[in-house]
Amino acid sequence: MEIVNSIKETRKHIKNIKSKGKTVALVPTMGYLHEGHLSLVKRAKEENDYVVVSIFVNPTQFGPNEDLETYPRDLERDSKLLEKLGVDLIFHPEVEEIYPKGYNTHVEVLGDITKKLCGRSREGHFKGVVTIVSKLFNIVSPHRAYFGQKDAQQVAVIEKMVRELNFDLEIVPCPIVREEDGLALSSRNIYLDKEERKDATILSQSLFKAEEMIRNGERNPKVIEDFIINNIKTVNYAEVDYVDIVNGSTLEDVDEISGDILIALAVKIGKPRLIDNIRLEV
Ligand code: PAF
Question: Whose C-alpha lies nearest to ligand 1, atom 2?
Fold first, then answer.
C-alpha cells in the first residue's frame, strides 16, 4: 500500500493502473476511521481492481466555530486498518497541496438542497464538501466513489453535482453502520462522555419508532416529526437542531408520507452535534 501526499504522484499511479484497463475506486474520508468507513472500503474492494482512500480533514467544510482544530486524527492507526483491508493507495495531502496560497476557486450547489437540514446551521459547509469532492474526483478520476448514507444530504448534494457537472463516474451510497444499541457510527462519537453516550441512543430509537408508526399507517409528516422531537427531549443532554421528513433523493419537503422518504435529524448531545436518518419506501 502506498501513502502519497502529492497530487502529481497520485495521478502517476492512477494513470499506470488505468493503462492496464483496471477499475479505480475512491473512498473519500477525513480519517479517524471506524467500521462505517471500513464498510465502504470493503464494498469498494469487492467492486473494483484498485482502491484509493483519501484522508484529508478539509478545512473549507468547517464553520468558524466548529471542531476543525480538534477533529480527531490518527494516520498510523488508519493506515494499519486500510492495509489490512488491501487498500492500494492512501492519498493524504497537506492543506497547502489542496489549497495553495492564493487559492480562490469553489464549487457550489445552489438552492434548497444545500440550504435546508444541515445547511441551515452549517453555512458554507456543502460548498466546502462539494469543492473538495470535485477536486478529489479530478485528482483520482475514479470509476466509482463510495459515500456513507449517514450523511444523506451530502450524498444527495454530491449526486446532483456529479449529474450537473457531468462527472463521468458512479456514486455508490452505502448503508449506515450502527453500534449494537443502534447508535450510528461517527468519528465524533468519541466526544461523548458516558452519560451522553447513553443518551445518544435516543436518536436511532426515535427513528426506528417513527418507522414503525409509518409502517402502521401514519402518513402525516408533522405528527412523526413532533413525535421524534418530543421523544428526544426526554433525555438530559439532547438539544434538537432539526428533525425533517423530506423526499429521499430531492430533499424536497413532503405534505404526505409516501414514496421515497428520508427522515433526517441533527441533535447536539453534550458537545458533539450528531446526525442520523432512515430512508424508506412507503
Ligand atoms: O464525509 C466526509 O467525511 C467528508 O465530508 C468528505 C466526503 C470526505 C469530504 O471532506
Answer: 29
